[in-house]
Design goal:
344 residues, Serine Threonine Protein Phosphatase 5, Tetratricopeptide repeat, seven-stranded antiparallel beta sheet, 7 strands, peptidyl-prolyl cis-trans isomerase activity, cytoplasm
């Protein structure tokens, strides 16, 4: 069933009706939806038949790997038409909207970024990539002056092809019903939340909920990292933000250490030591992670350096070194036994 829309030049075909009353699209409400983008014929017509339509699909968030798309109402998103379209839908509704090229000029930029997000999600490597990824996902859309690196997207621009979007509106959340994403917040808002998240993390840590505490520290690091990447490296403001980051990295690393995620402990404490080479907590926690990961030389180096900086740790570090030496001795004995067993 085709119906007119409030957007000039756009036709809506209802595929599946929604339920309930029309949602309220207040400013800063979050609309969450899946979409499938379809390349139309040059005359604006839809390919005939579902099989041919499938051959013209450009992106599908259900299979792409980036998850449902999230749009904040009234935040001047790159493609204004999407906000106008979802405002004409009910939750649960599935509809196809055919749009002229002038309304979808920026789609290749969005698609390029979504594909990058999906690719990176296949190999997550911790909060630094997560923070940059989230920033790039929704607001880091660079100008595509030299092509997108995707032939299908470049063709859309070169041929100025119209598009259709099949949208399934999953939910609409009012402001205050969801935790704002990093990209949608102002720098001041992020900084205000950092100490709150840190205190919440501290409380969870004291209660023995190390995973919960790690989640709070992780979120705080996301916020402060997204502020940091907007500053000029080595500038005064950048240095101030890096100083805020250090205790969060240390707390996060301690949680990871107790959760036996040793490689991540090494990575995050190494970041601390890049910023503060003589940070005793960073050296000690990295030393423990190295020791747990059977890296004797690296562990001994970090423990001894921590002891040089803080002689009061002598009893604690001596114990760590003895434990490490004994563990390595037992491991060598076991390995020797396995080798001899193979010979005989």
């Amino acid at each position: 069933m085709s119906v007119r829309t409030q957007v000039p030049g756009v036709r809506k075909d209802l595929i599946y009706g929604g339920k309930g009353p029309p949602p309220q699209f207040l400013k800063n409400s979050k609309a969450v939806f899946h979409f499938r983008s379809i390349k139309l014929n040059p005359d604006g017509s839809l390919p005939a038949g579902e099989d041919e339509i499938k051959d013209h699909v450009i992106d599908d968030t259900r299979t792409l790997g980036c998850g449902p798309f999230e749009l904040l109402v009234g935040r001047k998103f790159k493609m204004d038409v999407w906000e106008d379209l979802v405002k004409e839908m009910l939750v649960g509704e599935v509809a196809r909207f055919t749009c002229p090229y002038k309304l979808v000029v920026d789609y290749p930029i969005i698609a390029q970024t979504l594909r990058k997000v999906a690719k990176q999600k296949l190999d997550p490597t911790g909060y630094y990539n997560d923070a940059h990824r989230d920033h790039a996902h929704r607001c880091g859309f660079g100008a595509m002056t030299h092509g997108s690196g995707h032939k299908d997207l470049d063709m859309l621009t070169q041929l100025k092809l119209p598009l259709a979007f099949e949208i399934e509106l999953l939910k609409v959340e009012a402001p205050g019903q969801y935790e704002p994403d990093v990209w949608a917040m102002k720098s001041e808002e992020k900084e205000e939340l950092v100490p709150i998240l840190k205190e919440e993390g501290n409380a969870l840590y004291k209660a023995g909920d190390y995973q919960g505490a790690a989640g709070k520290y992780f979120r705080a690091l996301e916020y402060i990292e997204s502020v940091s990447i907007q500053e000029k490296p080595l500038g005064n403001e950048w240095k101030r933000i890096e100083d805020i980051k250090v205790p969060l990295l240390l707390n996060y690393s301690q949680c990871l250490l107790l959760m036996e995620n040793y490689l991540e402990v090494i990575r995050h404490t190494s970041k601390v030591l890049e910023l503060e080479p003589n940070n005793v907590k960073g050296l000690f926690r990295r030393g423990k992670a190295y020791a747990a990961d059977w890296c004797q030389e690296e562990a001994e180096r970090d423990f001894k350096r921590a002891l040089e900086l803080d002689p009061s740790l002598k009893k604690t570090i001596d114990k760590e070194l003895r434990t490490l030496t004994e563990r390595m001795r037992i491991k060598e004995r076991e390995e020797r036994g396995k080798f001899q067993g193979k010979l005989f």
